[in-house]
Amino acid sequence: MKKILFVTAFGFISVFAQSQANILPAPPNKGLICIKNATIHIGNGKVIEGGDIIIENDKIKDVGKNLSVPAGAEIINANGQHVYPGLILPVSNMGLVEISSVRATTDVREIGDMNPNVRSIIAYNTDSKIINTVRSNGILLANVVPQGSFLAGSSSVVQLDAWNWEDAVVKADGGMHLYMPSLLPRPSGFGRFGNMPGGPNAQAQQSDPVKEGLEKIENLKSFFREAKAYFANPSRNETNLKFESVKNLFNKKQKLYVHANTVKQMLVALDLKKEFGFDLVIVGGSESWQIADLLRQNQVAVILQQPHSLPTTTDDDVDQPYKTAAMLQKAGVLFAISDDDSQTRGKNLPFNAGTAATYGLTREEALSAITLNAAKILGIDDRTGSIEAGKDANIIISTGDILDMSTSQVVHAFIGGRKINLDDKHKQLSERYEQKYQLKPKKGF
Amino acid sequence: MKKIYGFIVFCFLHQTTIYTQPTFPENGVADPRQGFYAFTHATVVKDISTTIQDATLIIKDGRIVTVGAGLPVPPGAVEVDCKGKYIYPSFIDIYADYGITQPQRALPTGSGFGQQMQIESNVKGPFGWNQALKPEVDAFKLFSVNDGAAKPLREAGFGTVLTHVRDGIARGTGVVVTLANEKENLVVVKERASAHYSFNKGTSTQAYPTSKMGYIALLRQTYLDAAWYKNKPYKEGFNATLQAWLDIQNLPQIFEANDKWDNLRADRIGDEFGVQYIIKGGQNEYQRIREMKATGATFILPLNFPQAMDVEDPADARFVSLEDMKHWELAPTNPAAFEKAGIPFCLTTSDLRNISSFWTNLRKAMEYGLSETKALEALTKTPAQVLGIYDKVGSLESGKLANFLITDGPLFHEKTNILFNYVQGIKYNVKSDANISGVYQLTVNTPAGQEKFTLEVKSANSATLYAKDTLNCRFSFDGKQIKLSYAPMARRQRPSGMPGVDTLRRPGGAFPGLPAAASSQNLPPNATRLSGISYGSEWSGTGTDSLGNTLTWTAVYAKAIESRPDSARKKDPPVLGKVTYPFLPFGWTEDNKPKQETILIKNATIWTCEKEGVLNNADLLLKNGKIAAIGKNLNDPTARVIDGTGKHVTPGIIDEHSHIAAASINEGAQSVTCEVRIGDNINPDDINIYRQLSGGVTSSHILHGSANVIGGQTQLLKFRWGGNDEELKFKEWPGQIKFALGENVKRANLSSAGQNNRYPDSRMGVEQVLVDAFTRAKDYKKEWDQYNTEREKRIKSKKSTADLIPPRRDLELEALADILERKKFITCHSYVQSEINMLMKVAEQMGFKVNTFTHILEGYKVADKMKAHGAYASTFSDWWAYKMEVEDAIPYNAAIMHKVGLVVAINSDDAEMARRLNQEAAKTMKYGGLSAEEALNMVTINPAKMLHVDDRVGSLKVGKDADVVVWSDNPLSIYAKALYTIVDGTVYFDREKDEQLQKEVEAERARLVKKMIGEKRSGAPVTPAVPSYQYMHTCHDHGHSHGLLVIDNDEIYNP
Q1: CATH number of A87-384, picked from 3.30.360.10, 3.10.580.10, 3.10.320.10, 3.20.20.140
Q2: What residue in B sits closest to A264 (Cα-Cα)?
Q3: What is the pLDDT of residues B803-825, one digit of tens each?
Q4: pLDDT per residue over B781-805, tens digit each?
Q5: Bond prior to A70 in cis (omega within 30° of 0)
């Protein structure tokens, strides 16, 4: 307890000397750390009350009750506190977009429809001011995803405490991202959604987005068929970078993330899995509750991009987006929750999960949706996603329930055993003006 | 016999102009005619209440001489025997666009965010400042006769129309003309018959106005300007627009509103300026018929009912809303709803894609309850009276124009045809084949002798021919020429060697399942072929028989075909769903309207948001819409008891900043637009009201957007779900005006530099806009003060005030003057500390106070200054980094400002977040360590203070409004759900009932999908299923994402 107070106080004092620029990435952990007497939320649905965790170097060495504290271990008494696996933001533009309305600060989208060769990881800016604010809420890993109009490129999972993108990589190029065409007829007569009555484009724009979309998908299938044939021919003379970039889809080292919401879009996506055997993940999935059984039968995972959203139709259950997660859970679909909000940049991830818990999930199921299940979908569950011996020591400690904004206070975070600096630009500015007004913080930050 | 002769021959007599104008020179030999006719033995429907049997109608010189029973045919008149026929006054279309070339619509321009704006009118001449006002346009000067356009109208039964130029917000005058194909001089009935208005800029390319509320403000200001212009103010010079506006005020004023809410908006403008508009409505008035009646207006209703959609594919049906399907079902009840409510109305062909669908849709409206009498009145007397031309048209009386219809039966019966439409005494054929039907004796003079047949003619291209047996025949009649071919029918297996005869043919001449016309195509080449001429009841001609012999033939009318009874098999009235309020899912029907109740919540945790704090195991009594008691062991035997055990009760949540439930949000065409008012365009049909009730919101402050420095007047709502636009308003609150600073108002985020041509372009200019506006407002106030003082002085000293001319009323400056006088308050969109500071300095310089800084994401940097100024702060809990000016936004903002001593609110500015405002408030506990009570105050009593309604809402205190939420859990917890949301003691959201409603929505959807599929199967035309997109307004400040079917309104203007 004393130690915690010290650390907290230290955080404040150190602010004077710090700015965003010198919130330094933590050095590697050499040795043992023991978190004592915590309520440990494993991430797989289980909870250990009054449990201990031993971290050795970068890994979790042991988890359980009444573990003996090894000699020389740094002890963190977490009595009355909650310990969770580091949260995972499964879809994010972090490090690619700093200020969305300032074009010069965005590196998230390339020109053209077919960009499978584009890689998000090389543009990931570890010095983005967004990152520290997000990890302050317990998010320690993120999947950095390129945007696009069709086949947008590959995403990589990063950990959020690094000097540069090479250090940040947890899994490189693990996902290929396809943005499914809308496949919804548009209303006529409005702006970019159709044509203006009497306007110059009234004739030209009489297009059928459903047909166009399906044609695009047919072309994509041709692309994959040709890619497959390309790999089957060892004596090829020309190198096709776009084919090369989808190689790992065929050998399942890479998953296909299809950004899709309507049933039609998801069924079309399923077609790609059926023909090419890709590992398929639906991103968005606002209508996934309608075909939950099909998704389970076909082992399609879903990332619900934004549970905090309005129902799709006026006729829907007012709480439908809050309930979708529970419906997928009930159907046995592997799903994760993300937070796509462009005004808060992902830091409300735990509260999106909390809402899903209010509307049908258990709290531990909700936690899995932002930890272990996210890790499974991203293909990193062998390393992280839960507090289990042998996994990376990606751990957060909160004084209260992390899923509830009224209690969530992250006081410690470890990435690969490294105790990271939880300071961020927001806390610094807060501190600056609390100093100006001589305010004493009542508790925490 | 005679009858037929009369009709057939008559129609070929005169086709050319029959009237000549005295002032026009004659080229050739004069041919004066009087068009003197007597129509005898007809059933004459003089007007809706008078029908005369066996009557005579006498017309001369294009007018009715007299009409009555058994009148003698005057000498000189041609008698037309109308035995068995009906005569009706022809119809009047009060909303046609006949004979006017309508200006081409331009692309919408001038949104607040998109493109270069045309700031000034580009019309040359001494006209007013706004290009969309064209009261000087006179349709009669632009009108030209167009027989091609007149014909379909005449065929539908119309004889007279009002036509005008459909362009602009004020459109000038309309002209009443007949549909006669004569020189314009002769068809004009009334040259300036009406004045026209709309909520549509038409071809105007000028930026202002861009919004519904802008249209309204422009109209209001123009009424004021015109009144002021009467005094010929020197400074204004000659203003042709205002002069014309004044000149046409005494005409019937017709407002094209086209929608239930727009009808009300138009009517309120009229009320303010003493004008009763005649309202051109749309299809959806039945959804608010009580409100329509209250306007006191006469309506003009179109008959364009929506077609069924093809919803057989469930994936398509999924996105077709209940609202759209219900409207499809109920739209044809619209005219009947007006009749039932006793609201006067006219019917028009306007808005029909094709005039030929007029009768189909009229009959549909009748099937859905519109009576024959009302239909006739709506097509004759009402429009005539509305236009003040009932002395000329609309009934059959002496002296009126000879505009009438001759029909072969009662006008509205399904089988009845309009045979002739007389316009100004000139006959126009409508259905020339109507009189051909009958049984004829056909005699063919073959070389072998006479052959006799019986020919039963059903219509101009359908007949049956038989002698002993029925023959295979083909018949046609073009109004004059007859063609008939026939051959023996191959009824059974004939001996071989009969080529060309289909052995499968059956009696009746048709293949099974094929219409007769198809089988007659198979007449053998050697069929007998006749052709000839009709002389009415006798025909004769020549022909060729199967062997090639030439022959002659005659046919004589014998008798009428046994007429099948009109399908008077009265159709069952259609089974229809109920109108709900609002016309959305989760609306209520008239018979289960939520009512104010006495409610006792027992044994709950009560968060008072008062100094009493949180009361455990306490009771709350709501009575007569107010909080009646708070305490322990309360009792009221009349109360509905809600068990509050384990539950929490809070005041209803108040959202200081929202953009839902409005038809428009931004009037961005000028930098100062405080003349516009959100309250003028409230849209109660917004599902987000219900969704937010489900999150415990009871009051919401609907703000103008942030497109300009001084935006529009805001509107505080109470979520009385299902109420109309007035009923949703929070009664008696001092208004507020939205201001905005920074990136949006300087249009910093346009796609290229230099694109902005609307002042200002920098924060420096923003200040100057403010200083200038308030300086003008002060001068304005001074001018009025001087006038009022002088006026009072003169009245006191009993001097004349006649020569004292009042200053011009300016709605914009008046609103700013209200701020200076503290009658209205401002809420200002603001981000960075420099601009926050600046606005306070401008306010202090000008002598007013900044009431609320909204967004105020850098408020924490100048909280001390804000406190000294006395401003309130309404902010987001944790938004940042979506634009440059929020780079320093921090989630600790609210807590720091609170700790410095400001009254702080958390707002949504977002339709989704608004239903989780309790959670947003709870973030101040996380970021800044506020207590739960302090946090809750930020969405209850604190916003109430900012809105100056804390005497009525925002806390639980005896005497305050019964706006209360019952929560399942601690309201600051993410696990809390609103169980009941109560406004004024009325439960508008009940979580259990919501589940029931959800089932009802699904059942109603299923019923309507089935009905639409049935419609398709029955062969009715259907349109492809179109997803029911929702248009949402935002303040355009940040990226909102609200799902697949939501289109941000700004996208409409920015292709």
Answers
A1: 3.20.20.140
A2: B315
A3: 899 999 999 999 999 999 999 99
A4: 999 999 999 999 999 999 999 889 9
A5: no
